[in-house]
Amino acid sequence: MSDYDVIVIGGGPVGENAAARTAAAGLRTVLVEAERVGGECSYWACMPSKALLRPGHALAAARRVPGVPVGDRIDPVAVFARRDGFTSGWDDAGQVEWATGAGIEVVRGRARLVGERRVSVDGRELAATRAVVVCTGSVPRTPPVPGLADVPSWTSRDATSAHEVPPALVVLGGGVVGVELAQAWARLGSDVTLVVSGDRPLPRFEPFAGDAVVAGLRADGITVETGARAVSASTVDGGVALGLADGRVVSGSHLLVATGRQPATFDLGVEAFGFTPGQALPVDDLGRVSGVDWLYAAGDVTGRAPLTHQGKYAARAVGTAIVAGTTSAPPWSAAVATADHTAVPQVVFTDPEVAFVGRTAAQAREAGLDVRVVEIDIAVAGSSLHADGYTGRAAMVVDERTRTLVGVTFVGPDVAELLHAATIAIVGEVPVDRLWHAVPAYPTISEVWLRLLEAYGL
């Protein structure tokens, strides 16, 4: 048996952050990873997907500014080479070197909880004096569509690591992964069809966000089928066909299934502690797993806020709590992940971009808040200079009892950089009367803040 102070299971960005915190405090820390240190985000999700999206966005942006010489197509080979650079060719040697330099021991293998503070890694047993932290992330969820398990299909991993453009790609799923990868591959030259079961994609965002993204996808030549529930899947003519509930059939050379993810708690031994494999581990704001005082978890595996940046934030809280040995902390302590509840920022990197933080209007009303919504077009000097024909929209959700923002959404080209100001306003509970005195620079797209507050009545 090998003894440590802290065992971290899962070497993605979340696990790395938790391990870095405890190791920096002098605790003997081991990071257990079954695949690549750096995890999903580094090799198959955040980084490679954005690398595939960026060239198409840059070309589209250049076309919106007269006088900029641009070509009429993207070179997929060059795009793939740049993408491969960001993934280090799927080699994690650099990440392992970082971990070792940070005082973290890396153990390769699949971990399983086998007792109190004890973890088995392919037959080798590790013991922790303080805590075990589960940061195993999530895995794709496959819908129960008849025939789907029997046809060749891509997961998001395949879609972000491919080296050839599929002639015709069918994307099943209207969430963030579905819309981003549909646009990335369309701009790389694939004939793309997006199949969305609801009225619009991105159902968890404000409705105008999904509508704007549909318009952007269709402008790129993507066929967007809404209200399209898949009821069958089959192979046809060397490709894949999806049968829809209304009798229509969509087909392509490749099929990407992007219908959500679920916590990666399979084969982890959680059932011995009263939890169900495949379901989230319930945690408090310190990251402690319910009913098991030595077990912590952070990131997608908790089901709280399945985004890389939120997982890293929660991991830093977990590491801080373990180092301090705390069982409670004030709401704004570094040892708690309170932002998970009300101030989660998210960007959808389509064209137009969607940037959102906090609650939608519907979510705020469900929470019992006295809601007022201000929604306007993004039409300021900065947006006009940014691109000819700039089209965007902004909305803020105000809790009238406190006169503070509880939700903000921006939709339009390059609005992601507006998001952190909104996040600060929500986390800081800045009253709109005081926000009025945060003067936006002219001429920038940030002037939309002035227009929102004017529309509110200031």
UniProtKB/TrEMBL annotation:
NAD(+) binds at residues 173-180, 260. Its EC number is 1.8.1.4. GO terms for molecular function: dihydrolipoyl dehydrogenase (NADH) activity; flavin adenine dinucleotide binding; NAD(P)H dehydrogenase (quinone) activity. FAD binds at residues 50, 136-138, 300. This is Dihydrolipoamide dehydrogenase. Residues 4-310 form the FAD/NAD(P)-binding domain. InterPro entries: FAD/NAD-bd_sf, FAD/NAD-binding_dom, FAD/NAD-linked_Rdtase_dimer_sf, Pyr_nuc-diS_OxRdtase, Pyr_nucl-diS_OxRdtase_dimer. It comes from Saccharothrix violaceirubra. Binds 1 FAD per subunit. Keywords: FAD, Flavoprotein, NAD, Nucleotide-binding, Oxidoreductase. PANTHER family: MERCURIC REDUCTASE. Disulfide bonds join 41-46. The keyword Flavoprotein applies. Its cofactor is FAD.
